[in-house]
Write a structure and sequence with these properties.
Blueprint (H helix, E strand, L loop, with lengths): L2 E3 L7 H20 L6 E6 L8 H10 L26 H9 L9 H8 L2 E5 L10 E11 L4 E5 L20 E3 L7 E9 L8 E11 L6 E5 L22 E4 L7 E4 L5
Parallel strand pairs: 1-2, 2-3, 5-7
Antiparallel strand pairs: 4-5, 4-9, 6-9, 7-8, 10-11
Length: 262
């Protein structure tokens, strides 16, 4: 027996520190019974911060069903915390400095005194500002005051939608015709399956040009959202190719297809 583990939803530090201290007590009890119990795992992940506090809170206060396709509603708690005052390594340092209840000392001291190894899953915090996902627009339908786009992919490519949530960084429109007229063109983005819930973006994104079939949509910062089911052929769609961009020791970036098998 190596130890104990837990997983908590959300990113609050105090509950995670409290439960880590409880697992420490369980490890000590297990050792008395002759078991090794030398490590605990506190699961994932560590938050990342996409935007500043004012922008994030303004979005939460003003968003309403009219901003989404089909009047979709989201509660504040449905969204990933796109602003976090502590992110990545700073969040881990703050967690270790948190005082679990009934201990009178920091979590780092609790673990050190018990001789325990701490395991955790940083998750998307390791991949902040990495990766982008590109879809081709296949169809455009006019709705009441906005358009509904369909693309050659599914919401499995952006895992926030799995949890009845929304991936909030706006996609960038790359028009096939750079000379297309400019203006203000709101649109939501649907995916390729027959499910009404298969939406890449419920929000009505305001694009600077009218989206057309053949245009590309680029979603930024998506490396932390590419899950293994995105590599599954169950949806009978071709598996999306991955492109690696490398600028190491080169005067200009070079790209290649990722040939790793799945």
């Amino acid at each position: 027996m190596e130890g104990f583990s837990f997983h908590l939803s959300g990113y609050a530090l105090q509950p995670r520190a409290d439960l880590a201290a409880r697992l420490t007590d369980l490890c000590l009890t297990a050792r008395v019974k002759g078991l090794e119990a030398s490590r605990i795992s506190i699961g994932g992940g560590l938050p990342i911060s996409y935007t500043d506090a004012d922008t994030w809170h303004a979005f939460l206060q003003t968003q309403r069903p009219a901003h989404y396709h089909a009047g979709k509603t989201f509660q504040t708690s449905d969204f990933y915390p796109y602003h976090s005052p502590l992110a990545g390594a700073d969040a881990l340092a703050a967690l270790l400095a948190t005082r679990p209840e009934k201990t009178g000392t920091t979590l780092a001291s609790v673990l050190r005194d018990a001789g325990l190894e701490l395991l955790l899953e940083p998750g998307r915090a390791l991949l902040d500002r990495a990766g982008a996902t590109i879809f081709t627009i296949q169809g455009v339908k006019d709705r009441d005051g906005y358009q509904l786009l369909t693309v050659d992919g599914t919401s499995l490519s952006l895992s926030e939608q799995w949890f009845s949530s929304e991936y909030l960084p706006d996609p960038q429109l790359i028009p096939k015709d750079p000379a297309a007229p400019s203006g203000t063109f709101p649109a939501s983005v649907g995916a390729a399956t027959c499910l009404e819930s298969d939406m890449l973006t419920w929000r009505k994104i305001t694009f600077p040009r009218r989206p057309r079939p053949g245009d590309l949509l680029l979603y930024p910062n998506t490396a932390g959202y590419q899950m293994d089911s995105n590599e599954s052929p169950f949806h009978d769609l071709p598996l999306p190719p991955k492109v690696v961009v490398d600028q190491t020791d080169r005067p200009r970036p070079r790209w290649r297809l990722d040939r790793h098998s799945t």
